[in-house]
Amino acid sequence: MSFIPLSFDCEMTGGGSYTADVIPAYVNPVAVGLALAAAGCAVPAGYVTELRA
């Protein structure tokens, strides 16, 4: 299993592997967008917390 980009590798009994097309193409851009949105929310939240302290 690969996390960047998201993919799923099937291991064969002979020792090889192949990438299974079980993760749709739109999942990787959505995951990147959500990660950027999370970072974009965390930075201002930390700033506001410092202002209140």
Q: If you had to describe this structure to a student in words, what would you say it looks like?
A:
With 53 residues, the protein is an alpha+beta fold. The chain has a domain at 24-53. It is built from one helix and three strands, in the order E-E-E-H. Strands 1-2-3 form a three-stranded antiparallel β-sheet, with no helix packed on it.
Main attributes of the structure:
single chain, 53 residues, alpha+beta, 3-stranded antiparallel β-sheet, 1 helix, 3 strands, 23% strand, elongated
List the helices and strands and how they pair.
Blueprint: E1 2-3, E2 6-11, E3 17-20, H1 27-52
Antiparallel strand pairs: 1-2, 2-3
Q: Whole-number radius of gyration?
A: 18 Å
- Which class do the helix and strand fractions yield? alpha+beta
How many DSSP E strands? 3
Average the pLDDT over all residues and give the rounded result. 88
Count of runs of 4 or more consecutive helical residues: 1
Quaternary structure type? single chain
Percentage beta strand: 15-25%
Name the strands of the widest sheet in spatial order.
1-2-3
- Level of helix content? 40-55%
Spatial shape: elongated
Give, in order, the helices and strands. Answer: EEEH
Whole-Å distance between the termini?
43 Å
Largest sheet: 3 strands, antiparallel
